[in-house]
Structure formats: C-alpha cells, structure tokens
Give the backbone structure.
Amino acid sequence: MSHTSLAQLSIAEAHAKLVAKEITVADLVHACLDEINAHNEALNVYLEVYPDLEAQIAKAQQIIDTGVATPLTGIPIALKDNMLREGYIASSSSKILANYKASYTATAVSLLEKEGVVFMGRTNMDEFAMGSSTENSAYGLTKNPLDPTLVPGGSSGGSAASVAMHGALGALGSDTAGSIRQPAAFCGLVGFKPTYGAVSRYGLMAMASSLDEIGPLTQTVGDAEILFDALSHHDPMDATTTPEAMRVPPAQVHKKIGVPWAWVRSEGVSEEILTNFEASLEILKKQGYEIVDVDLLYAKHSLSVYYILQPAEVSSNLARFDGVRYGVRKSGETLQEVYMKSRGEGFGPEVRRRILLGAYTLSHGHKDAYYTKATNVAKKIKKEFDTVFQSVDAIATPTSPFKAFAIGERAGDPLAMYISDLFTVPANIAGLPALSVPSGDMDGGLKHSIQFTGPNYSEKNLFMLGKIITNE
Amino acid sequence: MSQVTNEEIQKLADMARIHVTAEEGEKLAESFDSIIAYVDQIRGLETDDAGAVSSAPYNQYRNDSTEAGSTYSRDIILEDMPLREEDYLKVKKIL
C-alpha cells in the first residue's frame, strides 16, 4: 500500500491497521507529511508543521506496542491556530500574536495528547475566528483542496482543508456561528458542533464566550464520534462545562424530523441545494422517519442576534490583546499611543470592525435597543427550540445556503459574507448540538451537505441520523 | 445618508484603543450602516415574555486556592514579554 492511500484512511480504519501492526505510526504520519509537502505551499493550509513529530510518533508507537491503544492513539490530527499547545506558537492567525508562545496546553489538546494523538501542526483561520472564508488571515488566504479557485469556508478553513488534502485524518476547529460546519460542507467533510458546555474551552482563545464551542472535522461520522467522545468531559478549569451527571439526552424518540420549510424556501437557497436536500429527506423517510413542517419564527432571526451579541463579546474578550504582557508591542510616546498603535496595527480590518461595532452596540444610548434586545430574542429562540423538540428528534436544513464560493467573491461586502452562517448560527444562539454531513456529489468535485440540529446532549441521535445519510 | 458618522467611529476607536485612519473611518461608518440596518430586523419582535430559559446558566464554584488543575510555564511567560529587564516586564510610564 502506498503512503498516499494511508493518508486517505479514516480514523477508524487507521486504528485497526495500527493495532493489527499492519502499519506503524511513523508510516501514517509520514503519509500525511507527504501530502503536506506536496500541497501546502499552493494551498496555505498549515501555518506550521510541529517540529516534534518524531517524539510524538515514538510516544504513540510505545502506547500501541504496550497494548493500551485507544481509537485515537497514533492518529494524525490538525489543530486550529487558536488552540494552545504549551511551548508552541498559537497566533489566531493575527499579527498581534505573531510571536506568542503558549505557556500552557488547552484541555481539549491535552485530552487527545494523553491518548497519544500526533498533532501535525496548526492550521490557518480567519483572524481570531472572525470570517467565513479564511480570507481574513494575517498569513494569507487558504485555498479549497477540492477546487483551489474556491474558498475552503471559515473560520476553521485551514482545519477543514488539512483533512480534505489528507494532511491529517481529522482536525479540531472552533464554532461560534458555523465555523466548523460551514468549512466542513465546503470541503466535503463531516463537521460537528457539540452542545454548549460539552467540551472544555480552557486554552481556546475566547472570541464570543457565550457561543464558542470546540468540535471535530473528519471524513466520516464515525470519526467525528470518536473525537467527540474523547473531548466531551467536564473540566474544573472551564466553569461553563456541564458536569457529566447533568448531561441528559432527550427521554423520548419520536422518529420525526422537523424542517422549517417557510424559512428554508424564503432565503434564496439555490435550486441545486434544495433538490439535494429533498433527496436526503427521502432517504430518512425510507428509514421510517416522518418529516414534519415546523415554524421557527424567532430562530430565523439568529444571524441578526449574532451580529449584536458577537461583536459585543469580542470588544470585551479582545481587550486583553494590548501588546503589554505578550504579543507584538509597537513603540509610542505615551501609553495611550502604545495601545492605539499595537492594537491598530496588530488587528486586521475585520477584527477592528467587530471590536468597534461591539463598542457601538454596547455604548450609552444603544445598549437597550441592541444588546438587551438581542439577549431577549436569544431567550425566545431557546424557548422556541424547546417547544419544537417536544415533538421532533432533530431539525434538518441545508448547512449553507450556497456552495463554496470563489476567492474574493464576497470579501468586499461584510453582509454577503455573514449570510454564509444563516442556517448554522441558530444552534450557537441556542447552545444546541449540530452536525453537518456530506449528502451527495455536486458538479466540480464539491459535495452537498445537510445539517441536523438536536436538543441538548442528543449527540448520539445526530450521529445516527448522519450515518443514515452517509451510509456508514 | 450615513447614520453613523466618522466622528462617532473615531470616538469608539479611541475608547477601544485602536488607531483608525480617517479614510478607514469613512468605510467603517458605511459598513456599520448596512450591518445595523440588517440587525434592526429584531427590533419589532415581541420579547416581553422572554423570561428565564430551561437551559439557563448556573454557577459552579471552586475552592479559593491555587490547587487547580493546570500549571503555567514561568519561563515561557517571561519569554513572551515584549520588553523585559531580567525577570521584570518593562512598561511605559503610567503616571
């Protein structure tokens, strides 16, 4: 078997070969490295391949050789550049953190490290995870491995592209409005955003703390499940993680899937995507699911709520990047000038826009009209989902209203870019788990995708629905 | 007509400690208008009965001690400092 085919294995397949001693960890990692060496220069996916691969390989192989391997031991995984790994740069693809070395390791990273995962490197992203195309990186844009004239989606575009180009068997991303699921859809992968509170964000650079969640990007639903199971733990270092005893999945299975038809049909979703979406629903019907029409009168306004809450949280969270204790400090005559220059030159245009927008909607005279109103609409959205989930197991929509777009096509118009998250953002506003899976081939080598959003801790059910679509 | 003025943008930029040029301020004001026009769609929604939600956050406490589960590399923290003198962080004069 050639190296190329090893890099194309799923996590589950590679695990079987590793424990059967058909292949070594070194074979697998070097197969991924060959892909990186062949494609990374053209696609700009990895910002850095970690220099300690050989040490990681040796550690993983030893775990396998002593017979205590887990499904992730020796598996090459890529990390988004906003996750901390002690001793290595984590820049959130920003100039202001160009030289920032993590002084501790994120919980999500250390959980995988203990299982002997081999971290291949850190992947490109929209700066501080603000964007839907990975064009907002201080280190150049990333191209879609399925078609290099297109964007890979974002903000976890580098993580998606790393798996799509077989430079890793899976990747971690973060999802605040769709930043795992939309790039997964654009790159033909599975992407999963867990229930808010399922996975620790300790060591993930905070963007909008009430919405951020870490999750996997993989080739198969089964692989996403393996990574999620490894990551899903209560963490004393992140007080927003839910204790295991409180993680209660829905008691009842209805065998019903809700579709908000009025919303899906009113948003200019392309005919091609609608046709595939309807075909996916037919597959579910054949498995005995009833498809019912549901109204989401508040959830359809999630994107508006997001563009009030997210900038507000950003303006607060990103206040810590001041060039004083770490990061890049510019010189100036006064302390004020040092701040103004360090932050003005260190942050890119989109990040600057969001910080100022947050300052605007939080400022005196605007807070009630915007921030307070948005938090109340968010509560109504949560209640609306609670009601809908009394009679359906999950809600299905297309993942993205449109397919992967051309590089530059939406870069000049913020609203045209923001609309990418139309169907993915309600899950973040309501804190719900949501899974995007490939649902068939599209012209030009791309894939269609369908998204299932479920009640809190209904992950197992979402994975089951995903496997029906991917035929796993 | 622009609702948000360049002057307002400059004031926000000053509060947020971000240097913004006059030219960028104009562009930002324009984009603020279109974003605010979009998010304004929630203004008409009825939210008087929003109240509490079933998945409302709850508090988790820990002991007030340093026994917590993580360690930080002192060496790296020092190494990350943009300006230092021995083991001290150098900053601009504040007063």
Remarks:
- Residues 6-42 of chain B form a domain with the Histone, subunit A fold (CATH 1.10.20).
- Chain B has a mean pLDDT of 86.
